[in-house]
Structure formats: structure tokens, C-alpha cells
Design brief:
alpha+beta; FAD/NAD(P)-binding domain; seven-stranded mixed β-sheet; 17 helices; 22 strands; globular; binds flavin-adenine dinucleotide
Length: 464
């Protein structure tokens, strides 16, 4: 039998994981196309002055599927640390440990907050609150009560997704918020570790995708970086897909039996010849993010991995210190901070210069009680166009249009965080890749089994 050719679009975890599994299980020939020079997508890394930096705070969570985790451990060996989180959250003017612990929530914060949260809990135990509608606001209010919502989740939602909590779908509460009910919150708060251990690679989070890609390459996969997918069409006579890719002035046409896309689902539809007008006009929205990196001329800023800022007087949502993630930082008299600023492509942050962004972050740090003692040695930014999917009320309809059409295409699979418009972690994206490969039998993709896996993916809950 002639080996089927799989062309994978996108070299984030979902793409690299599939390339490796397809080659490892000898399912066919593999070509992966990534537009960036670096693999890893939003979960990638880059190095500046000997320090590995990620696109915002990334950790591999312990909830990772055991098969996936086993492979990552085998590939990275001692390069994968397993350690306790050292996070802090600024709540009502005080820093408390994050993930939250019950004693901090009730004893360290001010009495009004503790009494309010406690009264909500008691009320919730005796009075059933029906949700007014299926919005993020209603689901969270019914489950957690007004105090925690108004001080913590609602401002955070407005910052992360840029929408009022009333206009966000209830699914955002169910999928995105691990502690989305009081019983879950209490369980989480009561756990001795606060859900706080994570895995992290020595050379930055991107080392995970790089390891998958490197193994795939060794097993014969062709990994093309710096090539952008610019068109996709189906040649029915040959029963083949044609994928047009471009690199500066070069272009090339790849023939594929199977196309597996991890591109944002609406972007992939836009590249597809013959996509119907209703599919092309189906509007789904992503939240963008500006990442600001500040290099400081000191060995360390704090020993905290990441500071979280749910409240709205500070524009950044998180400030991480990448050197602290692996746990045994390189000796150097420099450190970096990475500030995460969610934004929209039409907002002020997206178009600000690096210098202006640096000023926003410095002011935020001052307000958050973490002032810079000296100007940074340098400030630069990275910009993510698709950081988070935004589930506004009614988003299911346009998404279904896009997804149903993609699913009707022969030997075409859309998956991964962007491909399924899912607010998923890296371990979920890798799990999807493994599941897709399990669906390939004798060169044929089992769409029925894939639909069953898709139902399982819909139950994924995002870890922070
Ligand atoms: C700020 C932030 C923090 C996060 N923290 C965590 C965390 O702590 N733990 C965790 O597990 N997850 C975290 N995530 C989520 C994680 O980044 C994603 O789950 C992961 O990147 C998804 O992988 P993917 O392969 O599905 O998609 P992506 O990583 O988005 O990869 C898609 C790839 O497609 C490429 N592409 C797009 N268009 C084209 C084109 N036309 N041609 C060629 N290539 C193209 C892109 O360049 C990209 O490399 C975080 C995400 C963000 C934004």
C-alpha cells in the first residue's frame, strides 16, 4: 500500500504531537507546516541573554493525560522539573497565595469580604438560586454568590475577555473556571497543596513542542518552519488536497491525502477554496494579548512564579518571572518579567509602542505594590492575535456553521485549541493529537470514533 501523506498545518503542541505520533506508529508520511521560525505556537519559547522566555506564564498541569505525560517525561528526562507553584494574587489590596487557600480567603482578607463570602456560602446551602439565563454572570452568581463574583471573577472576566460577564456564555464559567461551584471551591481550597504542583522544562515551555518535533523529524517527518499556509483546495479527480504554502518570494504546492489543521478554525475556512459564503461570514472572536518583557539588571525580582491581578485598577492580568519556573535558574545578574495584557485588535494597547507599553506596566506595578527600583535594561513586546476564544452568548451558532462544514470535508480534521475554538491547555491539545492519530486505521480516518473523542474534548476543564 502507498503510504498516505498527512499534511499538518501549524507547529504548536497539537501539530508537533500529531507529527510525532503519526510517524511513531508508522501511519504515513508527514509534512508539518509552521509559519513561524520557531515551533510551539502560543506554547513556544525563545531565548534572550541566556534566559528562556515563554508567551506568558505556561505550566504543564498535573491533570495531563498519563500517556501524554509519560511520553513527555521520557523525552525530556531530567529536563522536566515537577515542583510546587509559588503564585500570589492581589485581592483587596493584599497578596495571598495562589491557587487560593481557604485560610487566606477567610482569614487574611478583610472581614467584610470574609463575612460576605461566608454568608453567600450559607445562603447557597439552604436556598436554591435559579439562574436567570445561561450567562457567565448568572452561572457564577448562582454557584458562588455575589461577594466572590464581584470581587474576583467578574472584574477578571472583564479584563480577560473584554466583555461584561452578563454578555458571556455560561459555558465560559463551566469550562474556564475550575472552582465554579462552592463545593468545588471548598474542595480546592481545602486541598493541602491547593492544586499547586506543575511540570516545567529546563529550556522553557516550548521545549515540549520542540522535543515532539525533534523526535518526529528523527522518525522521518518533514518539519517546515517559516512557511505560511496561504491556500487549501480539494482536487476531487485525484482525491487529494492541495495546500499552498509561501515563504517570502517562494511558493509551493503540497499534495496530501489528509490535512490536519490546528489553525484558528475561521482562518482555515478563509484559506479554503470554495468555502460557502455563510461559513466565511460566520463570526467568532478571539481575545488578543500584548506580552511585555522587562529585562532587569538584578539576579531576581521576587521568588514568586507569577502574580495574578483580577482587579480592574491594574491593566495586566498576570506578571511572571520566567527564571523562577524551572526552579534552578541559571546564575545571572539579569532577570526578566513578563506582563500579560489582554486586549482587542482595535484597542489602544495593541497599537502602542514598546516604550508606551513599558510605561503602562511600570505604572501597573507601582499600583500593585511592586514598584521597579530602577528602569528596565530593555522592554520589548510580543503580540498574540489569538490568545483566548471569547464565548459571547450565542457564539455556538457561527461556530457550529464553521465546524459542521469542516467536518463534512473528506480527510480534513480541525483540532487543537485554535482549531476547535476551545479554551484548552497544552495537555488537552496534545491529547487531541493523540486521539486523532488513534482514529487512523490502514490509512483511513475513522470519523465516527473522532466524533466520540470530540464529545470527550467538550468535557475538558481549563487549569489556570
Ligand atoms: C497567556 C497564555 C497562557 C497560557 N498558559 C498555559 C499554561 O500555563 N498551561 C497550559 O497547558 N496551557 C496554557 N496556555 C494555552 C496553550 O498556549 C495552548 O493550549 C497551546 O498553545 C495550544 O496548542 P495548539 O497547537 O492547539 O495551538 P497553537 O499553539 O496556537 O498553535 C497553532 C500554530 O499554528 C500556526 N499557524 C497559524 N496560522 C498559520 C498559517 N497560515 N500557516 C502556518 N502556520 C500557521 C501558529 O503560528 C501556531 O504555531 C496559555 C495560553 C495563553 C495565551
Amino acid at each position: 500500500m502507498v503510504e498516505p501523506h498527512f499534511v499538518i498545518l501549524g507547529g504548536g503542541p497539537a501539530g508537533c504531537g500529531a507529527a510525532y505520533q503519526l510517524r511513531r506508529q508508522e501511519k504515513g508520511r508527514v509534512t508539518l507546516v509552521e509559519q513561524s521560525e520557531v515551533l510551539g505556537g502560543n506554547a513556544g519559547s525563545f531565548e534572550v541573554n541566556g534566559i528562556h522566555l515563554d508567551y506568558g506564564s505556561h505550566r504543564l498541569h498535573s491533570a495531563c493525560d498519563p500517556e501524554v505525560l509519560g511520553d513527555i517525561q521520557a523525552m525530556l528526562g531530567d529536563d522536566l522539573a515537577h515542583r510546587e507553584r509559588r503564585g500570589r494574587i492581589l485581592l483587596r489590596g493584599k497578596y495571598v497565595q495562589f491557587p487560593l487557600r481557604a485560610k487566606d480567603l477567610f482569614l487574611r482578607l478583610d472581614r467584610r469580604f470574609a463575612l460576605g463570602a461566608g454568608a453567600d456560602m450559607i445562603r447557597r446551602a439552604f436556598v436554591r438560586t435559579d439562574t436567570a439565563d445561561d450567562s457567565f454572570a448568572s452561572v457564577m452568581l448562582a454557584n458562588l454568590g455575589r461577594t466572590i463574583c464581584e470581587h474576583f471573577y467578574f472584574p477578571y472576566a472583564r479584563k480577560i475577555w473584554g466583555r461584561p460577564p452578563e454578555s458571556l456564555s455560561g459555558i465560559q464559567a463551566r469550562k474556564r473556571v475550575t472552582a465554579n461551584s462552592l463545593s468545588k471551591l471548598v474542595k480546592r481550597l481545602g486541598s493541602p497543596l491547593g492544586g499547586g504542583r506543575f511540570y516545567y522544562p529546563r529550556r522553557g515551555f516550548g521545549q515540549i513542542s520542540e522535543a515532539y518535533a525533534s523526535q518526529a523529524r528523527q522518525l522521518g517527518a518533514e518539519i517546515l518552519t517559516g512557511w505560511r499556509v496561504t491556500g487549501i483546495r480539494r482536487n476531487e479527480d485525484e482525491r487529494l488536497w492541495k495546500v499552498e504554502i509561501r515563504q517570502e518570494n517562494n511558493s509551493c504546492l503540497l499534495s496530501a491525502d489528509h490535512v490536519w489543521s490546528t489553525l484558528p478554525i475561521n482562518v482555515a475556512a478563509g484559506l479554503m477554496a470554495g468555502a460557502p459564503p455563510d461559513v466565511l461570514s460566520a463570526k467568532i472572536e478571539y481575545r488578543a494579548m500584548v506580552l511585555a518583557y522587562l529585562e532587569l539588571g538584578r539576579e531576581s525580582f521576587t521568588n514568586t512564579d507569577a502574580h495574578y491581578f483580577p482587579e480592574e485598577h491594574v491593566r495586566m492580568t498576570r506578571l511572571s518571572e520566567p527564571k523562577n519556573y524551572f526552579g534552578a535558574p541559571a546564575q545571572s545578574n539579569r532577570t526578566f518579567l513578563c506582563a500579560e495584557l489582554p486586549c482587542s485588535l482595535s484597542g489602544d494597547l495593541w497599537t502602542m509602542s514598546d516604550q508606551e507599553i513599558g510605561a503602562v506596566v511600570a505604572e501597573d506595578m507601582r499600583k500593585a505594590g511592586l514598584p521597579l527600583s530602577a528602569p528596565p535594561l530593555q522592554v520589548f513586546t510580543k503580540r498574540l492575535r489569538q490568545a483566548y476564544p471569547i464565548y459571547t452568548i450565542g457564539y455556538e451558532e457561527p461556530l457550529h456553521l464553521l465546524d459542521a462544514w469542516m467536518q463534512s470535508l473528506p480527510n480534513f480534521v480541525t483540532y487543537g485549541r485554535q482549531g476547535l475554538f476551545a479554551h484548552d491547555n497544552t495537555h488537552h491539545a496534545l491529547f487531541m493529537a493523540y486521539c486523532a492519530v488513534k482514529c487512523v486505521k490502514d490509512g483511513v480516518f475513522d470519523a465516527v470514533q473522532w466524533r466520540r473523542y470530540r464529545e470527550e474534548f467538550a468535557t475538558h476543564v481549563v487549569e489556570d
